[in-house]
Amino acid sequence: MATVSPTPLLKDELDIVIPTIRNLDFLEMWRPFFQPYHLIIVQDGDPSKVIKVPEGFDYELYNRNDINRILGPKASCISFKDSACRCFGYMVSKKKYIYTIDDDCFVAKDPSGKDINALEQHIKNLLCPSTPFFFNTLYDPYRDGADFVRGYPFSLREGVPTAVSHGLWLNIPDYDAPTQLVKPLERNTRYVDAIMSIPKGTLFPMCGMNLAFNRELIGPAMYFGLMGDGQPIGRYDDMWAGWCTKVICDHLGLGVKTGLPYIWHSKASNPFVNLKKEYKGIYWQEELIPFFQSVTLPKDCTTVQKCYIEISKQVKAKLSKVDDYFNKLADAMVTWIEAWDELNPSVAKSAELPNGAAK
Amino acid sequence: MRTSPSLLSLTIDSALLNLSNIADLSPLPDHIVLDLFLLPARTRYFLSSRHSTFESQLPLSFLPDVLRNSEIVLISETCTSLDYRVAISCFSEALYFGIELLFVFGKMSLAIRDDEIDIIIGAIRSDLTSFMNEWRPMFSRFHLIIVKDPDLKEELKIPEGFNLDVYEKSDIDRVVGSSTSVLFSGYACRYFGYLVSRKKYIISVDDDCLPARDPKGFVVDAVAQHITNLTTPATPFFFNTLYDPFTEGADFVRGYPFSLRSGVKCALSCGLWLNMADHDAPTQALKARQRNSRYVDAVMTVPAGSLVPISGINIAFDREVVGPALVPALKLAGEGKFRWETMEDIWSGLCVKVVCDHLGLGVKTGLPYVWRTDRGDPIASLKKEWEGVKLMEEVVPFFQSVRLPREATTVEDCVVEVAKAAKERLGSTDPVFARAAKAMLDWVNLWKSVGSISSSPAV
């Protein structure tokens, strides 16, 4: 299959953000694909522990002490003892694109047996447009060998910029605890050779295990919430970020893609531990989904930050009756934006739309 | 999305939120306890217990007395009862009760009889011999309806060994009258088959499509896949990133709300095409040598509120549920005998999607694939007529903006509303739209008089 032009490496424009509490041995397997890039490692848990980074990688590492030092009182918005702390990495990065991956994710093989360069596929996804306004039955129309189908209006064929590329996982699927308990042996062996835009107005469960995004377009929306130590909930960090991000992308006319690339998810977490973390989330999501489905953002929210602050207001107004946690979360969302703008002053008004109007 | 809660369910909801504060659950009646722990699954299952030997993969110590030595029968919404191993997850605070429990989500599809299915072929070409022979392994079990394009002059050639009814121009004229029979010319002839069929499920493929092979080399049984799609729920309200959760080896992912996991009825299944994909003429002309060789092993629900160009080349639908919404309405002025010269199916599909979204029904897309043979010349089609491509610029925004009133609760009512809106908003743009709107109303009337007779077929 001939490609028109090789995918650019973007090695000076992309940071790889990895949260870890154990070790980074998994990087050895990724070395051929990750070595050109700068890594931002966010060390969760005990800051006195030394995390060994394999030789030859260019990286910066932040532990809890660093987070406290850099953010001061605003550090309260960054979770502790939960991989949600990774969003600190998004905040301190100075690059245009972010790829984030979990430390139990390895290189997968495609059906022909070839190693999948997940990062290259994510870059392809981010660099080419999305088509959220009308569903293309042949999925990504910009892919080699595909195109728009009959009936797809030509005026919609330019697409919109892609803000998020959501990858999938072979082997251990990303199930919630009840499903894990019921199907402990199920493995995802189905390689679905497709990338597609998630239609405007549709929400989805965004998994943070294999995720890339355009930080300039959508970065401030990627707050992974208050999880872990001292919080009543866990394993909903990426879900929360995904719902906020999708609502904002829909409002600003940006695209979210899902599908390829696959990574190999090797470690099944303990379902009983997961159940304790998710218990409240399972019930709360019944309220959260209708909330996000009905959020409307006013026309004057033309930047991601403005959209995000507006969502935080609505969270406080409508979700505090579900649990007081949402008051804290709404406050943390505001703190996050303040910290983001402090650390990223030159793009404080990120990605204002060309004619100032939101779709 | 959910019906309003009863007093009992509100009480149970409240009890569950405060579960950690309840020190002693023993005074509660057994059925309330079971209900409490099945809360996330409650909207999908009713539960009854009988006493018989219980087989479990878990140590019996995990089961409470009330479940021990019981056979738990899960009764789905569709009243198909299945025996499942049941255990219910006990959250850490509820360990006061001293049990570890697990609960099960089962997937079920209905068993379909062969006589509930019609395979309907619109014959645009007269010699169907190789087409029928290639599809014989898949088609021969079922009843077929073949409708000959009224404009086709030659006699149809159909091989022996099928259970079928053939309809020609004279039959169409007789059943619907010669003034309305114009609805059924060209590719739209198949809609006459939809009208006179008395079966629940209809599967329809173009007469230039053959069975495809999957990447392992096995022949794809398109009929079986369509039926699976139609008889398992659709999930239009929230996107599942592992696509169809009801397929073997897949499920709902973390973050998918439990109350949405039972899904809704699937009304329409849109399949895809290998080799000649369904591109429009400009695209195919530009990429003359492009053939679709990518087999995407997925079925997915098109989300509610999202419109999609539904190709008529390879579809199946539940006639009982959504029949009237497939409308032979949009007839291009220069409509021809190649798909590049038609848009009737695209208009029809947009109508179906709008109606399904309004009525809470699902539309799936993806598998099965068919192999679409090379036929025709896109450049010739392009030179002749590209009206269809231009019209889509009006058609899509129109359907995106249609809002059906609350009072439209039947499919027929919905179609009438869409027709009214089309006449109002598009009628003056191009006469083809005014004609389409009228055709939709004619179709609904036909459906009421001919399509829904419950006794013997009209012919």
From TrEMBL, chain A:
The alphabetized UniProt keywords are: Cell wall biogenesis/degradation, Glycoprotein, Golgi apparatus, Isomerase
EC numbers, comma separated? 5.4.99.30
Would the keyword Metal-binding turn up in this protein's UniProt record? no
Q: What is this protein's function?
A: Probable UDP-L-arabinose mutase involved in the biosynthesis of cell wall non-cellulosic polysaccharides.
Extract the InterPro entries matched here: Nucleotide-diphossugar_trans, RGP, RGP_fam
Principal EC category: isomerase
Q: Which organism is it from?
A: Hibiscus sabdariffa (roselle)
Pfam families linked to this entry: RGP
Name-wise, this protein is: UDP-arabinopyranose mutase
Report the sequence similarity comment from the record.
Answer: Belongs to the RGP family.
Write down the SUPFAM superfamilies for this protein, in alphabetical order: Nucleotide-diphospho-sugar transferases
Q: Where in the cell is it found?
A: Golgi apparatus
Q: What is its main location?
A: Golgi
Q: Which reaction does it catalyse?
A: UDP-beta-L-arabinofuranose = UDP-beta-L-arabinopyranose
TrEMBL record, chain B:
Q: Which domain of life is it from?
A: Eukaryota
| Pfam families hit by this protein | RGP
Q: Which UniProt keywords apply?
A: Cell wall biogenesis/degradation, Golgi apparatus
- What InterPro entries does the annotation carry? RGP_fam
Looking at the keywords, is Cell wall biogenesis/degradation present? yes
Q: Where in the cell is it found?
A: Golgi apparatus
Entry similarity comment: Belongs to the RGP family.
Under which name does UniProt file this protein?
UDP-arabinopyranose mutase 5
Q: Whose protein is this, by species?
A: Hibiscus sabdariffa (roselle)
Q: What is the lineage of its organism?
A: Eukaryota, Viridiplantae, Streptophyta, Embryophyta, Tracheophyta
